[in-house]
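chain and backbone:
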Amino acid sequence: MQLDDAMDFMEAPRPDDYGFGTFVKLEDPKPGRHWAVGLVYNSQILNPAFNSLGPRLSSEPDPLFTPDLIAETRTLLWTVLIGNLETIKGKHHGIQGIPRVVVPVNTEVQTMNEAEIHNFHQDFKGRSQFTYYSHLLRSGGTFASQLTHQVLDELIGAAYFQGDEQRALTVLAKELAWKNTMGVM
């Protein structure tokens, strides 16, 4: 996805808003349609002018011909889709896994707040869930294990899970850290 910058949007996202491991939601605000929940797992600066021979002028016709240089440098973000949010009888919960629908082009992406992240990690009965673990390890790009470990640490620190579930997350985090350490050796 392409990030809006200060030239496109009055209140452009700051770098802290779209960092590695940020939970995001893909929604259309006007029809009120929620499409998916994702995690930012990569970013890239795209500069089409890199290695070009000179400046480019805008191609928009202008009767006064006041040529402006076009700022074409963009930040691109990669997200892995890990589920969606659903509301039943006014109660929000997460459906974890690969979303069944294809997200339309130009769908708005927003950072999720703490309550939305918590709701995503509960099923429709209010029980805690973290079923996208293996999907994240396979689909989270080059840094999948680091991303998964960061998400585990965030979930443990936020205390969305209690008792045995919290201990299970701690064991998963320690096992993943051990595999990351031993895999390098």
Notes: The helical segments are 114-120, 133-139, 144-158, 163-184. The chain has a mean pLDDT of 83. DSSP finds four helices and five strands in the chain.
